[in-house]
């Protein structure tokens, strides 16, 4: 049997460089295992070269955990290059705190930062205060003058990331020399903070200054194109420069810009133009654009087309988007197929809460609550706030309030802090179950967490106490709400609380206060107003509020508003007036609900002729509905001596 050829440190370094270049993590693991098995001394020698190559291989393969384990075992003193690479890896992974901890470790280890280290650390700063502290260290190091432009660019980028475009502009104006990165960083800072006009003006100034945009500049400025005409200009510049075919990020930014502005035809045009050079991000961007414009069928068709190409594998984002489209469409069968694909390619693991949450949302939306609950239990180790909210919302949507409250109690046991949306869902459950004691307990928890006066929580508390009959408490919570939180929904909820308990006089006072304070009244609230008047038999008030909709609020009454008035007129025996009112309905044809209500009134008041007309109309709308025949038969029977 031929002996295995021995490999020296230089040979291993070459192999590791190849693994890093090809992003082949499996091969990298295999080489690392071989080194440990056959040449452990190479890693333990005083020369850290091989360990450094291992470290860089893991970084290039995006295996940060393995990279840091190797880093911690590197013999001797670690160079500033290695420290900077580790800091940058944490920053790129979005782990700012870990990046800054590594920077402090480096300083404690006696290693001095160089300009690249400072630039990397600035990129990891999540607050302007931290960035400014690093800047003072830069000035103290003496690098501020020799590397002024690069460090200035890093400061602009840091301020932009932290949402301080004004401070970024201050650095920009004070710089003696600016390069393309300077301009791009400033454009990005304006775009990130929503100062879109300033970003566009900055881009134009850059062009006037003789700088030609690169692909990164194009991506940054497209993020600021709230006006599609600006976007079309940038699109032409990118196309003329060849960026659309050469750089997927630029092409995807153009697709995203058109998608956000609702110009799906133009987004599709760019997508098809770059078809030969598409990557999975291009497909994801186009799918996202379709979903934003409520074209879920098209998004799903794109996912299926991508799969059928056989050359592009879906990633986590692809599956999230496809599952979102399925949930919106309540397309259970298609969603199950995508769930199976995600399982097959190994995406549904415990570390992937976003995808797990989408699967839960799909099954919850489609009414497969037992399946959703089973998946939730299966991934209990990742019982995050988002997944808990999703499963609570699914049970609540289908009226299974007890299960929703049970999951909420499980969240508390697991130590998961509820959000304001969680409180809104479970308080709705308490209201529907008339579970006042549990509602009080949840109220106390919301108060302890400082969420009691959040608009959505306070409104849910008003609703819960109102529906449980505690109107004084409901009114007190409403009165204690900050004025900015007393929105249309909060006022409507208070109105509903009084109307639900038959306190129509107080409810109408609430409506009057809303009108006095200029609160915009939604058409749905007028359904509640008219219904309350109808059930109380208040015809004059009902007609007054109906007229007020158009005259005082500019709201055109819809079918449901006419239905409330017709129901009241019918119950009061004013059948001729009710018929005339039906003739005023937009389109001239009442729906089945109105005809059945009117037919019931005809039976109550023994009006056979009108009952026959109403029955004919109801049967024409829904011939197989037996109740129409039954009501008519009872009217005829009542007419017989």
From TrEMBL:
<dbReference type="InterPro" id="IPR002885">
    <property type="entry name" value="PPR_rpt"/>
</dbReference>
<dbReference type="InterPro" id="IPR011990">
    <property type="entry name" value="TPR-like_helical_dom_sf"/>
</dbReference>
<dbReference type="Pfam" id="PF01535">
    <property type="entry name" value="PPR"/>
</dbReference>
<feature type="repeat" description="PPR">
    <location>
        <begin position="79"/>
        <end position="113"/>
    </location>
</feature>
<dbReference type="InterPro" id="IPR050421">
    <property type="entry name" value="PPR"/>
</dbReference>
<feature type="repeat" description="PPR">
    <location>
        <begin position="384"/>
        <end position="418"/>
    </location>
</feature>
<dbReference type="Pfam" id="PF13041">
    <property type="entry name" value="PPR_2"/>
</dbReference>
<feature type="repeat" description="PPR">
    <location>
        <begin position="487"/>
        <end position="521"/>
    </location>
</feature>
<protein>
    <recommendedName>
        <fullName>Pentacotripeptide-repeat region of PRORP domain-containing protein</fullName>
    </recommendedName>
</protein>
<keyword id="KW-0677">Repeat</keyword>
<feature type="repeat" description="PPR">
    <location>
        <begin position="279"/>
        <end position="313"/>
    </location>
</feature>
<dbReference type="GO" id="GO:0048731">
    <property type="term" value="P:system development"/>
</dbReference>
<feature type="repeat" description="PPR">
    <location>
        <begin position="179"/>
        <end position="213"/>
    </location>
</feature>
């Amino acid at each position: 049997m031929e002996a295995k050829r021995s490999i020296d440190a230089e040979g291993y370094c070459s192999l590791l460089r190849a693994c890093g270049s090809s992003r082949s993590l499996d091969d990298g693991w295999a080489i690392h295992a071989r080194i440990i098995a056959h040449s452990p001394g190479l890693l333990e020698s005083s020369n850290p070269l091989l360990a450094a190559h291992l470290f860089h291989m893991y970084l290039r393969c995006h295996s940060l955990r393995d990279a840091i384990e190797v880093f911690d075992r590197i013999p001797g003193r670690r160079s500033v290059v290695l420290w900077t690479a580790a800091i940058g890896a944490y920053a790129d992974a979005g782990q700012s705190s870990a990046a800054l901890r590594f920077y402090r470790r480096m300083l404690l280890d006696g290693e001095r930062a160089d300009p690249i280290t400072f630039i990397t650390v600035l990129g990891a700063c999540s607050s302007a205060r931290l960035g400014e502290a690093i800047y003072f260290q830069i000035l103290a190091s003496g690098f501020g003058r020799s590397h002024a432009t690069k460090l200035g660019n890093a400061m602009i980028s840091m301020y932009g990331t932290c949402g301080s475009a004004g401070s970024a502009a201050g650095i920009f104006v004070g710089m003696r020399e600016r390069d393309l990165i300077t301009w791009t960083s400033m454009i990005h800072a304006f775009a990130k903070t929503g100062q879109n006009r300033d970003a566009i003006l900055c881009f134009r100034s850059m062009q006037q200054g003789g700088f030609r945009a690169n692909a990164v500049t194009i991506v940054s400025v497209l993020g600021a194109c709230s006006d599609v005409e600006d976007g079309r200009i940038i699109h032409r510049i990118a196309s003329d420069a060849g960026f659309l075919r050469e750089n997927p990020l630029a092409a995807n930014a153009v697709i995203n810009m058109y998608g956000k502005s609702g110009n799906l035809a133009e987004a599709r045009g760019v997508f098809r133009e770059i078809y030969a050079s598409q990557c999975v991000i291009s497909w994801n961007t186009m799918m996202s654009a379709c979903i934003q414009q409520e074209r879920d069928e098209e998004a799903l068709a794109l996912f299926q087309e991508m799969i059928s190409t056989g050359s592009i594998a879906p990633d986590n984002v692809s599956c999230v988007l496809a599952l979102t489209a399925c949930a919106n469409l309540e397309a259970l069968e298609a969603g199950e197929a995508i769930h199976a694909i995600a399982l097959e390619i190994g995406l549904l693991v415990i570390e992937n809460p976003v995808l797990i949450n989408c699967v839960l949302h799909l099954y919850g939306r489609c009414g497969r609550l037992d399946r959703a609950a089973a998946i939730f239990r299966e991934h209990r180790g990742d019982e995050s706030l988002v997944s808990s909210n999703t499963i609570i919302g699914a049970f609540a949507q289908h009226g299974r309030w007890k299960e929703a409250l049970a999951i909420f109690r499980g969240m508390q046991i697991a130590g998961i802090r509820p959000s304001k949306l969680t409180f809104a869902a479970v308080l709705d459950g308490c209201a529907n179950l008339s579970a006042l004691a549990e509602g009080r307990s949840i109220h106390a928890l919301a108060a302890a967490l400082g969420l009691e006066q959040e608009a959505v929580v306070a409104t849910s508390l008003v609703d819960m106490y109102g529906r449980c009959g505690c109107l004084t408490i409901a009114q007190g919570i409403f009165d204690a709400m900050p004025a900015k939180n007393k929105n249309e929904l909060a006022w409507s909820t208070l109105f509903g609380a009084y109307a639900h308990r038959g306190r129509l006089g107080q409810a109408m006072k609430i409506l009057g206060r809303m009108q006095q304070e200029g609160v915009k009244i939604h058409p749905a609230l007028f359904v509640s107003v008219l219904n309350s008047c109808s059930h109380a038999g208040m015809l004059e008030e009902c007609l007054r509020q109906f007229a007020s909709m158009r005259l005082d609020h500019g709201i055109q009454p819809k079918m449901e508003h006419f239905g409330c008035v017709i129901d009241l007129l019918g119950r009061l025996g004013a059948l001729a007036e009710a018929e005339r009112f039906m003739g005023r309905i937009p389109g001239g044809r009442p729906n089945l609900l109105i005809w059945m209500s009117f037919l019931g009134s005809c039976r109550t008041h023994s009006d056979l002729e009108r009952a026959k007309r109403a029955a004919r109309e109801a049967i024409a709308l829904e011939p197989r509905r037996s109740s129409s025949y039954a009501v008519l038969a009872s009217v005829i029977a009542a007419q017989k001596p």
